[in-house]
């Protein structure tokens, strides 16, 4: 390590000097106390998980550590020295790297360009030396076991690969501390396993890692220590060896959490959704859904298991009117709704929890109340003869915020001020309360904390019991297994199996998801 860099940790540093330290951090957003008296110590070579309910203040804390937010109180120390963190540039100069949940990559540029961007090796005349950049990237990637194709265009890569590029971007700037805010939320189980391997390798090399996740299994498998936050404060620091998933959940939420869904046997009746020989193309015009047929009956949950990228997204988008179907039919209660508009489909009684909440779920600048009635503001009692009835909107919004435990100071706040998981709760609250015949739920609990997952799952089962047909698409096999009455496995745009949930083994599903023997 370069001894002239004042902020790097000398190899001889006593283990007691943390790589990164937050001391007494406080941060308010108007009336919201996002962080209060927060202390965090991250040692060299340590994987430190940061855990807490939606809105607990995790992202706020790491954004302060990375210089994106300015703390109202407290101090950030790097290798024992207090530092002023006014912008990410300061953080990078102190060898702190961050991988954001929403990637900051430039889609049309290559992997190498993205990695060296802002720090590029130049020819004497100031042009980017692409060959040298590619060589450097390959060298870096090999060193950390993060294989990437330096000349591939970022937008062509699967998310797991894009995330590698983000990590390499941080490592290229020689990060001694790597902060990752919910890095596994969008990854497939396979990509997650690969990422965890990479992080272990980095920690073994001495990198200090701060890792935010809602998945307790990952914390147990990966973390050396865990700091738990609740309501803007640290409630404690523990280690996987000292606790278990239930213990972590209780520490987070302050009560014991049922990690299993309680439900009785389904009593399905008539088919609500019938999909016949559906063909849908992906955004590049290639077949994504390839002759798929399925049926969801009133009073049952059909779970679709599959590795992401096997047509799930295109299936859901075609069913909800967001994407054109090239062939086949979609029947709702016997009526043809193939290629109807999203609004028509919604008005016919289809609720949709979309996979991409930033794109389809919320209108960020609008109030939380408006977002909660986005699919019904034009109907009674929220509007009468075209005139908005604010009191009715507010009453419904207050009820949903309380029921779904949306953490916000006010229903008048803009939706974009919510923490990631609370945004998802607003969408779930709206879609699960609209009195639909069919609920299409894509990754409905992505980014939601364990306590709220419990609630959303209960609500989905309650809907089922009221006779709603539920189509669940999830990358979480555990979610599929615990909620579904029947399970379909999707592979390359086709359902390769559909069976009663009780009859399918986890391992068999896993094999079919990857096109294994059982699929035929
Ligand atoms: N830019 C902002 N403006 C207003 N309020 C904000 C802003 N950023 C965060 N908050 C509020 O601060 C609190 C903490 O939010 P934060 O994003 O840190 O939570 P989190 O622990 O990361 O939650 P999640 O698990 O849902 O991502 C929340 O109440 C949130 O609404
Ligand atoms: Mg967050």
Describe this structure in words.
It is built from 17 helices and 22 strands. With 520 residues, it is α/β, with parallel strands linked by helices. The protein folds into two domains: 20-253, 3-Layer(aba) Sandwich (Rossmann fold); 271-362 and 431-519, Rossmann fold (3-Layer(aba) Sandwich). Strand 4 and strand 5 form a beta hairpin. The longest helix is centred in the middle third of the chain and has 16 residues, at 189-204. Mean pLDDT is 89; it is low at 1-10. Adenosine-5'-triphosphate (ATP) is lined by residues 29, 32, 34, 52, 54-60, 407, 417-422, 449.
Give me the secondary-structure topology.
Layout lengths: L19 E10 L2 E11 L4 E6 L5 H8 L7 E6 L2 E3 L4 H6 L2 E4 L11 H6 L13 H15 L14 H14 L4 E5 L7 H16 L3 E5 L3 H7 L2 E6 L2 E6 L6 H9 L17 E11 L5 E11 L3 E5 L6 H8 L5 E8 L2 E2 L5 H6 L2 E4 L3 H5 L6 H5 L10 E2 L2 E2 L1 H14 L16 H13 L5 E5 L7 H16 L3 E5 L3 H7 L2 E6 L2 E7 L5 H8 L7
Parallel strand pairs: 3-8, 3-9, 6-7, 7-8, 13-20, 13-21, 16-19, 19-20
Antiparallel strand pairs: 1-2, 1-4, 4-5, 9-10, 11-12, 11-14, 14-15, 17-18, 21-22
Helix pairs in contact: 14-15
């Amino acid at each position: 390590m370069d001894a002239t860099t004042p902020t790097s940790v000398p190899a001889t540093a006593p283990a007691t000097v943390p790589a990164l330290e937050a001391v007494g951090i406080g941060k308010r957003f108007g009336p919201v106390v996002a962080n209060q008296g927060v202390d965090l110590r991250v040692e060299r070579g340590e994987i430190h998980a940061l855990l807490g309910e939606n809105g607990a203040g995790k992202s706020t804390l790491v954004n302060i550590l990375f210089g994106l937010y300015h703390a109202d109180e407290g101090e950030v120390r790097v290798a024992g020295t207090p530092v002023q963190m006014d912008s990410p540039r300061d953080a990078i100069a102190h060898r702190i790297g961050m991988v954001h949940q929403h990637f900051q990559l430039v889609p049309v540029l290559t992997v190498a360009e993205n990695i060296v961007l802002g720090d590029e090796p130049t020819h004497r005349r100031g042009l980017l030396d692409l060959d040298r950049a590619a060589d450097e990237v390959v060298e870096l990637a090999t060193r950390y076991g993060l294989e990437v194709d330096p000349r591939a265009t970022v937008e062509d890569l699967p998310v797991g690969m894009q995330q590698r590029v983000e990590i390499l971007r941080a490592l290229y700037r020689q990060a001694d501390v790597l902060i990752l805010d919910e890095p596994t939320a969008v990854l497939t189980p396979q990509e997650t396993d690969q990422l965890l391997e990479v992080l272990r390798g980095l920690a073994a090399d001495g990198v200090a890692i701060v890792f935010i996740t809602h998945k307790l299994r990952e914390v147990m498998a990966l973390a050396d220590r865990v700091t738990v936050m609740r309501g803007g404060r640290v409630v404690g620091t523990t280690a996987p060896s000292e606790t278990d998933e239930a213990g972590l959940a209780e520490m987070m939420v302050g009560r014991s959490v049922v990690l299993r869904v309680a439900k009785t046997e389904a009593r399905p009746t008539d088919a609500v959704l019938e999909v016949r020989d559906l063909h849908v193309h992906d955004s590049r015009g290639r077949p994504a859904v390839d002759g798929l047929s399925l049926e969801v009956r009133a009073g049952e949950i059909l779970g679709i298991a599959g590795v992401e990228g096997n047509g799930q997204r295109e299936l859901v988008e075609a069913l909800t009117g967001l994407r054109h179907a090239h062939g086949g039919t979609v029947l709702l209660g016997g009526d043809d709704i193939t290629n109807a508009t999203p609004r028509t489909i919604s008005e016919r009684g289809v609720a949709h929890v979309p996979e991409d909440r930033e794109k389809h779920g919320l209108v960020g600048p609008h109030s939380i109340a408006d977002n909660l009635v986005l699919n019904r503001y034009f109907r009674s009692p929220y509007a009468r003869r075209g005139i908005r009835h604010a009191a009715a909107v507010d009453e419904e919004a207050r009820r949903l915020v309380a029921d779904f435990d949306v953490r916000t100071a006010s229903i008048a706040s803009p939706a974009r001020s919510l923490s990631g998981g609370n945004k998802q709760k607003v969408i779930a609250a709206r879609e699960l309360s609209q009195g639909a015949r069919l609920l299409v739920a894509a990754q409905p609990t992505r980014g939601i904390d364990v306590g709220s997952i419990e609630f959303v799952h209960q609500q989905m089962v309650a809907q089922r019991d009221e006779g709603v047909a539920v189509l669940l698409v999830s990358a979480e096999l555990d979610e599929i297994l615990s909620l579904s009455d029947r399970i379909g496995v999707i592979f390359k745009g086709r359902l390769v199996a559909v069976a009663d949930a009780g009859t399918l083994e986890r391992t068999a599903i896993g094999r079919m998801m990857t096109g294994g023997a059982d699929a035929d």
